[in-house]
Amino acid sequence: MNGKFLLDTNIVISLFSGDASISEKIAVASEIYLPAIVIGELYYGAYNSTKRQANIERIEAFKLEIPILDCDEYTANYYGQIKSELKRRGTPIPENDIWIAAMAMQYDLVLTTRDAHFSNIENIALTKW
Description:
By secondary structure, this protein is of the alpha/beta class.
């Protein structure tokens, strides 16, 4: 599967847990990116875990391997559009996931996730790994 992908937190956690299917898909993807929001969620998990230092070190090493995308005013515009549409339809999703979706749309990337609620967002490219 070739393409340009944005990884959701649950994909990175599965990768960290040794899910070989994720490693295989990453290996054949043309480009992989991480939203800064995902890094924040990973750090949150690490700071709340019993293996704090090991998890932080894993995140630090992973950050060196994959480009991290930051939010900017364009991301904020996509965020506003997505959140407004979700509210209008009565299908809210977690705030961080709206930001992640906004980044996928902004950078024209396929959002790679295992969360079904992203399908509530119109015009987003999704794949489930």
